[in-house]
Sequence to fold (186 residues):
Amino acid sequence: MMHFVIQFFAWFTGLSVLMSFIEHQIHRRLMHKKHFFSSFIPALNKVFEHHAILHHQHYSKIFNDKPVAPGQDRGLRLSMKEGFLEALPISALIAIISFQGAVVFEIVVCLHHFLWNKLHIEMHKPEKRFFSEWPIYKFLARHHYLHHKYPDKNFNVILPLADYVLRTNVSASRSDLKEMYRLRLR
Fold:
């Protein structure tokens, strides 16, 4: 039993790191760049338009505003069902090595989407959820605030490891720090 638990946590840790890089690349290459395939695959064009144009246009002047009614926050949320289905090809590849690893990858993707939905909504539509004063949340909110100020930086929302490894993280300027303090992100 202990061997199973150790393997689970090893897979979970490794695949969480992988998820940081996947989130980074999807956010950077699909959500912020229109490319050749966008004209052939409408879903890619829709992802780009909803994120780079609608989301960033709305939140370029303000980082957060009032909460919205359920269902009106689609541009801020990720679909757990879509995430699960989109992860299946990678899970199938992992299953060649380990069925347990394949299952853990699906868990990591669903957990990522769940956390994204809770944290990203709180960042842009704050409701003072129970975690909104936690230091880790404040760190992630500051990291994401800088992404909205510098859209070619800080692509990670949940686990910013890839931003540091790939050198796409940005440090806050003095004026950024003042604004983060005003927004109570410090």
